[in-house]
Amino acid sequence: MIHFYLTLTIKSTGDALAVVESPKPWVVIAPLALPGETIRARVYRNARLYSYADLLEVVQPNPDWRDMSIVKCKYFGKCAGCQYQMLTYEKQLELKRNVVVQAYQYFSELPETSVPPILSTIPSPLQYGYRTKITPHFEAPPKKFQKVVQAESAEIPTTRPDWLNIGFNQIGTRNVMDIEECPIATPVLNEALGPLRENIIKNIATYKKGVSLLLRDSLVVPPSESDLTSTQASPEVAINGGAAESSSPSSDSEKHICVTDHKGTVRELVGDKLFEYTAGSFFQNNNSVLVPLTSYVRDAISSRPSSSSLSAPTHLVDAYCGSGLFALSLAPAFERVAGIELSNESIRCATRNAELNGLSSKCTFLAGDAANIFATVQDFPREQTVLIIDPPRKGTDERFIEQLLEFACETVVYVSCNVHTQARDVGQILRKSEEGGGRKYVLESLRGFDLFPQTAHVESVAVLRLV
Ligand SMILES: C[S@@+](CC[C@H](N)C(=O)[O-])C[C@H]1O[C@@H](n2cnc3c(N)ncnc32)[C@H](O)[C@@H]1O
């Protein structure tokens, strides 16, 4: 393959974009470069409308933005996990706000007047040491090694052989990089990673296939009722750019362990609610920001315009509910709560979590496609009902949107880890709701949450009201 080496001037962040003007305008995407920088890059793949390049050297850094002295990870720049460690945390939050602005500008197809000013991004209380789940992986041993093993003349490695990399993907490739520690993961996951790696190295002869490991941070024991009231997390947040301090736990209920079995049970506290879920199933990966996130959604629901003559909402529908994070965190403020989720296992956990938190009498959880929820909540009073949507990255679908519009509840809160599909869906909801000529949905507020510090990802919360 022939590689093209280029000097590029960067125009945007995330995976940075540059435009080569000659012989004809052409977009090149390079990782980790910042606007205003000049970089040397090597093109390694051409798509129909653009090319991908490796960053070889930052020829002219952007001194206002780039500060390599604050990078905390020795793998930064090679590992695909983080993109923003060279930026101050304030700058990261500002860039994430811009991602929300641009997503609604380019993907919602809404007129500017329908999109409210995007509010500042809510920071994560922990900016390092926050990730409660990591999934390092390794490839199958090479055939040559497997043959030697079969011939029983294998030398069992005591140190890691050169071909064995246990870690995460290298930027822009499917090659695994060897990773011994991950500063964005919680302390207990980093403590567990070393012994886990040693065990794999010692037993590598027994592996015939590549493996994806799972490490999840869990509380050791369910806290007792008195612990639940005394360990309520503060919703306050700090921007200090510092690593997570691992405070010494004062009771068993504050001790953490690493769960590696996909079927094992993981326990987490979010404020005064205890959640248990199966390690292999979905749960948000940054516990430190979950109280600010769920409190924000609760406050946004209740802060209706003073002109509204409606009484407070009494019914909550949580579509794509997982093991009940939003449904159960918000349940105390509602008379009835209904959740739906595709995964049977998550629904089993949501039902159990309702019991654990004494909320069974008002909560029901159903396994199935999200759009099926509407048939089961026809008796909910629409003017007092709130719908929360938190779909996977691909967003929701037409069937769900059709039924949402027919259901026509007063408030919809759309939470998303992919603001681009959220913008597309919100645009569709607003446009279609106008078609009826009666009441229509408006986008009341929009703001990013930083669930993933040091990366380019942002969680977005959109609040829609029927007017
Ligand atoms: C981003 S997660 C949100 C889960 C939950 N709200 C939380 O914060 O923990 C999306 C969830 O949607 C579920 N899901 C995916 N497709 C679905 C569908 N068509 N209908 C219902 N749930 C679905 C996934 O299993 C996953 O648990």
Reconstruct the topology from this structure.
Elements: E1 4-9, E2 15-20, E3 26-31, E4 38-46, E5 50-60, H1 89-107, E6 119-122, E7 133-134, E8 137-138, H2 143-150, E9 167-169, E10 176-178, H3 187-202, E11 211-212, E12 215-219, H4 225-230, E13 256-259, E14 265-270, E15 273-278, H5 290-302, E16 315-319, H6 325-330, E17 336-341, H7 344-356, E18 363-367, H8 373-376, E19 385-389, H9 398-407, E20 411-416, H10 419-435, E21 441-449, E22 459-466
Parallel strand pairs: 3-5, 6-21, 16-17, 16-19, 17-18, 19-20
Antiparallel strand pairs: 1-4, 2-3, 4-5, 7-12, 8-11, 9-10, 12-13, 14-15, 20-22, 21-22
Helix pairs in contact: 1-10
Keywords: Methyltransferase, S-adenosyl-L-methionine, Transferase
Protein name: TRAM domain-containing protein
InterPro entries: MeTrfase_TrmA_AS (IPR030390), MeTrfase_TrmA_CS (IPR030391), NA-bd_OB-fold (IPR012340), SAM-dependent_MTases_sf (IPR029063), TRAM_dom (IPR002792), tRNA_(uracil-5-)_MeTrfase (IPR025795), U5_MeTrfase_fam (IPR010280)
List keywords for this structure.
single chain, 467 residues, alpha/beta, OB fold (Dihydrolipoamide Acetyltransferase, E2P), Rossmann fold, eight-stranded mixed beta sheet, five-stranded mixed beta sheet, globular, binds S-adenosylmethionine, tRNA (uracil(54)-C5)-methyltransferase activity, S-adenosyl methionine-dependent, NA-bd_OB-fold, methyltransferase, S-adenosyl-L-methionine
Number of strands: 22
Overall mean confidence score, pLDDT: 88
Helical segment count = 10
- Assign the CATH class of the largest domain: Alpha Beta
Largest sheet: 8 strands, mixed
Which compounds are bound in this model? S-adenosylmethionine
**Estimated helix fraction:** 10-25%
CATH topology-level name of the largest domain:
Rossmann fold
Give the CA-CA distance, first to last residue.
Answer: 59 Å
Beta-strand portion reads 25-35%
Going by CATH, the architecture of the largest domain would be 3-Layer(aba) Sandwich
**Global outline:** globular
How do the strands line up in the largest sheet? 6-21-22-20-19-16-17-18
Given as residue ranges, the uncertain stretches (5+ residues, pLDDT < 50) are: 228-248
Radius of gyration: 24 Å
Total number of domains: 3
Structural class: alpha/beta
CATH homologous superfamily of the largest domain?
A: Vaccinia Virus protein VP39
Keywords: Methyltransferase, S-adenosyl-L-methionine, Transferase
Domain TRAM: 1-57
Region (Disordered): 224-256
Binding site for S-adenosyl-L-methionine: 284, 320, 341, 390
